[in-house]
Specification:
Distance between the termini of chain A: 27 Å
Largest sheet of chain A: 10 strands, mixed
Structural class of chain A: alpha/beta
Number of helices of chain A: 11
Shape of chain A: globular
Strand order of the largest sheet of chain A: 1-10-9-8-7-6-5-2-3-4
Order of helices and strands of chain A: EHEHEHEHEHEHEHHEEEHHH
Oligomer: homotetramer
Number of strands of chain A: 10
Strand content of chain A: 5-15%
Radius of gyration of chain A: 17 Å
Chain lengths: 274, 274, 274, 274
Amino acid sequence: YYLITQKDITSRLKRRAKFTHKGTYGHALIIAGAPKTMGAALLSAEACMCTGAGLTTACVPEEGLTALNTRVPEVMAILNENVNEDLTWKTYQAVGIGPGIGSSPESLALLTKTLKEYNKPVVIDADALNLIGQHHELMQIIPEGSVLTPHVKEFDRLFGEHVSWWDRVVTGIDRAKTMGCTILLKNQYTMIFTRDGKCLFNPTGSPAMASGGMGDVLTGIITSFIAQGYSPEDAVILGAYIHGAAGEEGNDYVVPASSLIKRLPATIATNYST
Amino acid sequence: YYLITQKDITSRLKRRAKFTHKGTYGHALIIAGAPKTMGAALLSAEACMCTGAGLTTACVPEEGLTALNTRVPEVMAILNENVNEDLTWKTYQAVGIGPGIGSSPESLALLTKTLKEYNKPVVIDADALNLIGQHHELMQIIPEGSVLTPHVKEFDRLFGEHVSWWDRVVTGIDRAKTMGCTILLKNQYTMIFTRDGKCLFNPTGSPAMASGGMGDVLTGIITSFIAQGYSPEDAVILGAYIHGAAGEEGNDYVVPASSLIKRLPATIATNYST
Amino acid sequence: YYLITQKDITSRLKRRAKFTHKGTYGHALIIAGAPKTMGAALLSAEACMCTGAGLTTACVPEEGLTALNTRVPEVMAILNENVNEDLTWKTYQAVGIGPGIGSSPESLALLTKTLKEYNKPVVIDADALNLIGQHHELMQIIPEGSVLTPHVKEFDRLFGEHVSWWDRVVTGIDRAKTMGCTILLKNQYTMIFTRDGKCLFNPTGSPAMASGGMGDVLTGIITSFIAQGYSPEDAVILGAYIHGAAGEEGNDYVVPASSLIKRLPATIATNYST
Amino acid sequence: YYLITQKDITSRLKRRAKFTHKGTYGHALIIAGAPKTMGAALLSAEACMCTGAGLTTACVPEEGLTALNTRVPEVMAILNENVNEDLTWKTYQAVGIGPGIGSSPESLALLTKTLKEYNKPVVIDADALNLIGQHHELMQIIPEGSVLTPHVKEFDRLFGEHVSWWDRVVTGIDRAKTMGCTILLKNQYTMIFTRDGKCLFNPTGSPAMASGGMGDVLTGIITSFIAQGYSPEDAVILGAYIHGAAGEEGNDYVVPASSLIKRLPATIATNYST
């Protein structure tokens, strides 16, 4: 058991070097949203962009395109219905999937396609976790090194009912090792289980973050760090810490998820090594 | 008669405790908007979110979905036309209904359904009050503990014509008791009539708030506080006070409703007990 | 010839008194926009709201409703196609017409209806002025006390070609008297011709305001002041001065019209009498 | 080889003079966007407006109109499908073409029409450069004095493969002269090749700008300066410098393109001669 410190962040976080260009920081793909649940996609894609990925593309339903363009014109789009023609996996250095995709057959098909065809780590969240919980055969095709970011209920849907957080720690440590995945469990404390059997606690965060959309933001952040070349473990550690640190700022009663996103570029810069 | 003081607020307002999560702060449902009057729904839902509800869902017409997603991606949506399939009352710790719903048969049906099926206090505002004024039989099925937030004209439509504000006080005190509801009357002074026969005056506010949409914002605030576990009376007292306090900031000539909303997370924090 | 001074503003501008409500500040109607030119309507309506009208309604085409709701949820809407059923003139203490309405037969019909049916001063701008220039019979039905806000080209389309700004002054003074209208001419200097034969120069403004949409904003400001009970002359004097003063702030190279709008509530407050 | 200094900027940049109006600062046309790639158009058009063009019109597909109006109501629109009726070239003092137009036959036709019919310098970027790379006959009809803003891959698609940046410098100097165009090459360093054979290096910029949409913003900036009457060379020098200077502010980890745009009016003002 290990409590993450700011030094763990400063030692991992790389400053952007002079004369680097957007190619240096990777291209992230956020597969999120459904016609009636586009908000999650908007938050996740904007968070990915504001964490510094060189390019961010969102794979969304056509119904969400006007909202996406209006809110985050920096983010490119692939439409769900054109995914077979327009999606080339090798374009992307990182893929995040799940926020707001729902449980339709089309979403299940898109998740299956992603897990089968993308040969690098995938960040799996929210509805994607629930779909895997319902279709346990998908567990077998999760790419080595992937990141799972369940909250407690999603954790139990994936790995069975647990009666205490301690029980979940035991399961988390075990599954991270056997699946070869990093698991971030959003519990009272955010815990990270790594492939090599460690259990890390994230110290940052604020109850002001107890508000809808925060998980969607975290998915975008972690995907962004992976796109920038961090290992999945480092991306999860950096992501959880920065997400919480941004939420601690300002001492407000509540931090809307979209407000937290705007703070990310400055919050990251406060964690450079000196 | 009692003038609310800041001490009444600091003694009621709970800080968000460490390690609480979004479930701690409830899930609020805002039933608002119609195809041509979506603005009220957007303001009410955003105010609810910015007052700290753990989750906010807006029940809106499909025509308003792009605007909702673009403005407040943190807010989830249920479409009016799918309400029979997609709405599960027990999901919500608080329901606010009325801003911009108009007077269509569909809105009447949705209001009737809400009053009949939701067994907990409902925050009733604007067009919902007018519909009750036109369909007095609905008065009988308003859930015990509900909150009514009429302005003077809506008050008279509900309870008959009055010739002076003093007359309305007498009626307000009486009806709050007999209906078992908290009534907030937006008069020159905002007055609150409680179920146990008290009449409270709210001291905060500013003429800069004399601008469209302020009532929609207040509905969102009160619904949010109920979702967070406050009693309807406390939610109304906190809501009226915080709403007015946010409007006093800045000394501008007018405060657009959307600007007031952005101040809510900070304004609430200035009213913590020390 | 008279140069407006800040004292003329402070002596006219009324602070919002305690316990006033949105009814005190009137309901303004902005008739603006067409399917492909909605931006002008959005700027004009938001400026009207931010200048402190109690309520603002925009009469716009249905195609613009999502943009209106998303940008300014405080503003209500009447759709052009429903104007005969949904528009009740006596609801409105002021009407502004013209920004972005184009020259379609429908716009001509709506302008004609407005001039015929609304018996109080109308603020006439942009395409509405051009339509009057093309249909000179409309000149006869402009309500007494109306406000015309042409730039130089629109002035000449209305009143014939002029070869110098001095010529326009002579015409402006004459027409303001004979038509019984206040004419604001956007020239190198903004000049105001009043019904009683005066010619006023507005001293505020900045070349940073030389940017699209500024006229639309001014129309919203003047309409807002009339809705609040100012005489058309006072509304024009206050509007021109405040518009220019907001544009002087910040010393930026250019002020986007939407940025200027956001400053209005604070700029007005800086011109209260002490 | 010459390194641009701040003095080169202050000596070129003209303050906006008193009593100038929007006509003084030209009307810019940004031809950008396609139904699924509207974000680039929004960024380019907003950047053009925020750099101080008197008027900005965007030529976009109808699908993007709601997003355009919502984000930048100051910008007018011409729809791609109406371009033959609604577009009058002499209206515009500058034209920028390319961001997000894709490679459809319609986009090729619109590019061809632009190069053929517009007799003044055109700013050519992104997909427009790729289309020229695929249809080399278009190279012949690029108007004298035009500006090309390729990144390294687009440069090679236009002028053939290169093995080093030095090779590209040699080609760039040659082609700028023979084509009579200013070429801005987005390399590790931004280089500018002028018609008279010079090669200039731009010293501003920050790795925080390594993020999607920055090129779209630069296109809008350069087009805006040309519309304001600067020579293409001066517009490119000013544009590259100001773009980079805006990106240097704030020391954040990353600067979203839309955030950089908001800084432009202030950044330009910091580069006035004293």
